[in-house]
Amino acid sequence: MLISQLVAFFRTAIIASLFGASSIVDAYNLGLSIPILLSGVIGGWLQAGFVGRYMERNREPNSSNAATFRTAMGLVLIAITFTLSLGMVLTSHSISQFLAPTAHEQAHIQTVAAIKIIGWSLVPTVLSDYITLLLACHGKFIAASAAPVVNAIVAAAGLLIWPTHTLDSLLWTLVAGLTVQLVILIITLTRIGLPFSLSGSHLKADIVATLKVAFPLLPAVVFSNGTQTTIQVFCSRLGEGAVAIYGYASKLHGALTQIIVVGISTVLLPHLAGMLAEGRREEIRLLMGQISRASLLVSLFVVIGVMLLGENTISVLLGRGRFDQRLTLEVSHSWLLLSLSIFPFALSTFFAKLFQAMQRPILLSTSSFLSFIITSFTCWIGLEQYGLSAVMLAPFSAQTAVLCFFTWKYREQFDEKRLLRDWIKTIGFAVLIFSPAIAVDTLGLKDFSPINAKTLFFSRALIFVAISLFIAKLFNITRWIREGNTP
After folding, report:
1. Among 173, 148, 182, which Cα is nearest to 78's?
2. CA proximity to 321, closest of 108, 7, 25, 106
3. What is the pLDDT of residue 181?
4. pLDDT of 378-409, one tens digit each?
5. How many Cα atoms sit within 13 Å of 376 on the Cβ side?
6. C-alpha distances in angstroms, 271 versus 267, 284, 401?
7. Are 484 and 418 a contacting pair, CB within 8 Å?
8. Residue 237 CA: distances (Å) to CA of 99, 101, 339, 387
9. Domain parsing of the chain, residue ranges
10. CA-to-CA distance for 67 and 63, rounded, in angstroms?
């Protein structure tokens, strides 16, 4: 996953160099928003409703039931995605008006053109996700993770060699990468010898059970995936380039949240489910305390790093071609505002895994609805007066509200009263740890101009990390994270 993200970011750097924050990038990002929303919803359905039921069938002595189930689900997904893609193409003008209601005519023409091509990306995206789940269920993790890397390479290389720099080059290279990924996964699926048929029993019961299991979680998936689309809609009202700026900033922000959140949350759910099944509630309380202290400290480290090094980082990664200094400053500012949401988002995600393990889907749906409403309200209230800054702060306000909601429910379930006190102490330790690094960077390195941007960036980053780690070690901060006792 990390390799594919790195290669995909290389494509982002190419887009930044070739197109900057032009209306072409706006149209491209807006065109992607609905397919991303729909693929997220369908993916959430598959993960919640399909995997568990399929694993049950796969463990049965009669393998025909598992073969029938996976075949039927594949056909259902083909029908659903083809219908949705055709619907997006036929209603592309209405979708464009919804996504960018105040855009000028040329912007609408570009967005419509993007939707008519990108709309079909839903088919290979969802089918690739489905086959990846199948491969993972059968232990083929390496094969499942290799295909996205090839996708990213094809999409990036195609953009480099495309003879003209137009919207078509962005769209068709994206579709080409997704298609290659699907082909590789189909070949891999064929080679491992999984049969497909419709001859088994329980077909209708399996499909219905999949829907019943996933249905309570679907509102949460819809609202959580719809939040990003909402932000893009409000960005489109700020004129040309705003959607592109948010796109660049959100990719940088997303890369950090993936590193902090995804790796832990993936293994956290089964671990918590096992602890709940064994009645180890006190251990859960201690574990969540450790996670909350570590999340806050790491999040503050990231926010301070973005504050100090964000502009320099963007200049090194994206600052070439049409991505000029003005755009660097705007993306850096947006990235910093988005990074404020890292802690509430991370801890809310971990709480969500706990409540998912406790089988509390209503709480998850309520939290997603709360996030969606507050995101929309923040954007709507602040857009006219504060512009893009208000939109970039919407995730922070939404995730903070969700964290407050989850904390309230967590304290009810586990009688936990130390969280707020722990957070205050952690912030105090963060001040002691990071203040010297901030002072050294601000006073001694930030404006040191005789060296080039890359050398300056790596020097500043290395010194910031080294000083922070040294002082953290000096204060034995790992003991505080592990035990909650003053180091």
Report:
1. 182
2. 25
3. 93
4. 999 998 888 999 999 999 999 999 999 999 99
5. 12
6. 6, 10, 26
7. yes
8. 9, 7, 23, 9
9. 1-228, 241-487
10. 6
pTM, rounded to two decimals? 0.88
d(CA 476, CA 3): 33
Residue 203, pLDDT score:
64
d(CA 406, CA 10): 37
> DSSP secondary structure string, 212-230?
HHHGGGHHHHHHHHHHHHH
Residue 201 pLDDT more than 70? no
Q: Tell me the angle at which helices 23-45 and 242-257 cross, rounded to the nearest 10 degrees.
A: 40
C-alpha dihedral, 112 to 115 to 117 to 122, nearest 10°: -170
CB 429 within 8 A of CB 297: yes
Rg (CA), the chain: 24
Mean pLDDT of 417-446: 86
Q: Is 181 helix (H, G, I), strand (E, B) or coil?
A: helix
**How many other CB atoms are found less than 10 A from the CB of residue 36?**
19
Asked if residue 445 has pLDDT above 80, the reply is: no
* Six token digits for residue 91: 């209603």
Task: Decide if pLDDT at 52 tops 80.
Answer: no
Looking up tokens 């829907």, which residue turns up? 211
CA distance 5 to 27: 22
How many CB atoms neighbour CB 238 within 10 A? 17
Which of 36, 372, 45 has its CA nearest to residue 223? Answer: 372
Residue 30 scores a pLDDT above 60: yes
The answer on pLDDT for 346 being more than 70 is yes
pLDDT given at position 4: 67
What count of other Cβ atoms lies within 10 Å of the Cβ of residue 180? 18
Position 40 pLDDT exceeds 70: yes
Q: Are 241 and 26 in contact (CB under 8 A)?
A: yes
Cα dihedral angle (323, 329, 333, 336), rounded to 10 degrees? Answer: 80
